[in-house]
Amino acid sequence: MATEVTEYKQQAAQRAVNYVKNDMVIGLGHGSTAHFALLEIASRIREGRLKNILVVPCSLEVERQAQQRGIPLTTLNEHPALDLTIDGADEIDPDLNLIKGGGGALLREKIVAQASRREIIIADTSKLSPRLGTRWALPVEVVPFGLRPEIQFIQSLGAQVTLRKNADGTLFKTDQGNYILDCHFGPMKDPATIAHLLEKRAAVVEHGLFIGIATDVIVAGPEGIQHLRRKTGARSTTESPE
Amino acid sequence: MATEVTEYKQQAAQRAVNYVKNDMVIGLGHGSTAHFALLEIASRIREGRLKNILVVPCSLEVERQAQQRGIPLTTLNEHPALDLTIDGADEIDPDLNLIKGGGGALLREKIVAQASRREIIIADTSKLSPRLGTRWALPVEVVPFGLRPEIQFIQSLGAQVTLRKNADGTLFKTDQGNYILDCHFGPMKDPATIAHLLEKRAAVVEHGLFIGIATDVIVAGPEGIQHLRRKTGARSTTESPE
Predict the structure, then answer these.
(1) Most A CBs within 10 Å: which of B56, B60, B79, B148, as the mutation test of the A interface?
(2) Minimal CB count within 10 Å: which of A74, A81, A121, B205?
(3) B116 and B9 co-located in one domain
């Protein structure tokens, strides 16, 4: 089973990388699925099938991994508008809204997504969900200064809140030095309202709800690869696959 | 003129400190007007007129100043709900909405305000304005990682954007290590919509629009001291003055 899931992630990643063309500036997400996209891009560069690519990494870890594999890096300050980004997700609903942040890189991932013309999400089918919050807690990045009032505020919205820790019991810190609250809301009827309430809170640096951001979702599973496209809105794309 | 403005600030501060009672836990803002409240509290503690007060400072600078003057400090993590906060503002509209952040402490000031049952804003009358944005640029705190895309986004909303610098020409950094964009929108017809658009942006840590947050505004000027109270909403208070 674990091996199959790994294969599905890899299949979705390879399909997504077909959209990366020579001379593009792209974003690359953090996490086990996006990592397969990184490996695929590195291998196509090595084989000369992909030329003159620049990558904005969504975490310090992705930055290191890309460097080790000879992928040329850039920053949003050098290239504020990206052609596309390939990233994973923890949970995906039928409207292509997402929960992200299981790996803790949600802030940079959302900054990069908002700077991208196209946001391609790759996943195995286990990430599909009828409603966000069914399978995953919502990660919320909070500045240490306001931690406790924010826990109380999010509890007042009906969520059970856990402060994320590392395996050794120390507090998990993001690349920005903030904490992550994993907020168990259960299945959300109205994720956009929860997003809005969290965005109004000063201590919330960012939350893992990606509403209206993904333009494409490529999922692989036992029945093959599916390519879902956002139906409406300004970010819709109509390019043909491959 | 400068001397008079200083006197008005002091008058407003002294009036606001009348609402601080023994055993309260309060927030204290950053800036020249709030500094007079800090001095007044220190002097009342010294004279034994105020007992068992604890203060949450809104910046590292306020923390140092309070320590030097013997004001007992605490944190939001020890006291996540504050009785009241006294703070200044750069611009105040007739609905008691504010622009804050001239001093760069907007993030902590908003966190403290949102954790306070009562937010008392003190100012001289020069801070009153028919419309936010008339007299002051809107400060927006942005993570360095997403600086340039965010400048472009805010320009697309129609603002002229300046990256804040220190007097010596180096980039101004907030207590969290972020940058401040001073965004010249001009008089805003709908500050709440601008706030909402900025809150949706991942790279925006916080902005200086305080909408529906102030419960009281105490302004002093040539015609004396005025105490304005929020008319509607859950945060309205009806205590009598002094």
Answers:
(1) B148
(2) A81
(3) yes
